[in-house]
Design brief:
single chain, about 350 residues, mainly alpha, 3-stranded mixed beta sheet, 3-stranded antiparallel beta sheet, globular
Length: about 350
């Protein structure tokens, strides 16, 4: 996530402006937190070898070191991603807010120095996050406030692996590292949905290959199951979003729009429980069928689960050779921007 940027550090101590401007207070807090995180960095390899650290922590650090090495063997640009570790001293790093009108899946955006305009806002101050979310909800917006274990400074600093992301789930930890390294390897300007979905593909596929290379078939199968489930959910959400886009395209009155949303929510619950739930291998539906329609929560779905079937087809067209698939995709999209990325993939696959 790229909403917190290094320029925030320059705003710390702005005196009168700090008192007068909520934006300056927000950026000052972000700058302070970034400096605190950076000041606690230690090399990840050192943590992996630290006999005084808890055994589980050492094992997770060693896993990160090994994943980075494997990423390089795959031809991915590991660079300095997660070469350091920082303990943030709490369970939740920050809260992330998304907001959207109730009659359109159109994210509210916020503008920051360097990062530009982005469709989410992260808060280290949880009370401020809740107040801001409440203010949007009071104005009739759908809002979604969720915890996040990590953020990015868009390359301005060597972002460390944070203690909040050092999960005990080895598959998810490996997938996280591969995901972020995938961004270093291929990034298409103006194509956030492509970039995040590409990184999802690389994340889980590389994780499966990584564990298979270690003869850990249980973890490899779980990673393959996660990638399968992501595709299943991607198909479900594509149908849900299409129905909502069609509803919002009618430009109904607020009451009629709410009635339409309720009808789609009923369809969604039944379809998820009966149609897609039984197909899942590693995820469970849980209370997902009880959730009302929330455009703000669906914004992330559109970013991370767009055309996942295309990536699986691309994988198959390269004989499931991940290194080859990534290399050829990088060549295909070298000068692409925006929607050209998915367009070129489709055209290339149709020629085969």
């Amino acid at each position: 996530m790229g909403f917190l940027i290094a320029a925030a550090a320059l705003l710390v101590g702005y005196g009168t402006a700090y008192v007068a401007s909520d934006d300056v207070r927000y950026l000052s807090r972000a700058g302070f937190e970034e400096m605190r995180i950076l000041s606690h960095r230690v090399p990840i390899y050192r943590l992996a070898a630290d006999s005084s650290a808890p055994p589980e922590m050492r094992a997770r650090a060693r896993l990160v070191v090994d994943v980075r090495a494997y990423a390089e063997r795959l031809g991915l640009a590991a660079k300095q991603t997660y070469t350091t570790y920082s303990n943030v001293g709490r369970d939740t790093l920050l809260l992330v807010l998304t907001a959207s009108p109730r009659n359109c899946i159109c994210p509210v955006t916020w503008h920051y120095p360097v990062a530009g305009r982005v469709p989410y806002k992260g808060f280290f101050n949880f009370d401020q996050a809740k107040r801001t979310a409440a203010s949007y909800a009071a104005r009739g917006f759908d809002v979604n406030l969720r915890p996040s274990a990590a953020f990015s400074t868009l390359g301005w600093f060597n972002d460390p692996l944070l203690s909040t992301a050092l999960t005990s789930d080895s598959v998810e930890l490996a997938a996280l590292v591969f995901h972020e390294i995938a961004h270093n390897t291929l990034w298409v300007k103006g194509a956030t949905d492509f970039n995040e979905s590409f990184a999802q593909w690389v994340g889980y596929r590389a994780t499966a290959d990584f564990f298979l290379s270690r003869l850990d078939t249980t973890s490899a199968l779980r990673a393959e199951g996660r990638w399968h489930d992501e595709q299943v959910l991607g198909d479900y959400y594509a149908q849900l979003l299409d129905r909502l886009d069609s509803l919002y395209g009618l430009h109904l009155t607020p009451a009629a729009n709410d009635s339409g949303r309720a009808a789609i929510a009923r369809w969604s619950s039944d379809t998820l429980e009966r149609g897609y739930g039984p197909l899942l291998r590693t995820y469970t539906i849980g209370h997902a069928t009880e959730r009302p329609i929330n455009n703000a929560a669906l914004i992330g779905v559109r970013l991370y689960r767009t055309n996942l079937d295309l990536f699986d087809a691309w994988d198959a067209s390269n004989d499931r050779d991940l290194s080859r698939g990534i290399y050829r995709l990088h060549q295909l999209l070298e000068d692409a921007e925006g929607s050209q990325a998915f367009g070129r993939m489709k055209a290339s696959l149709n020629r085969k």
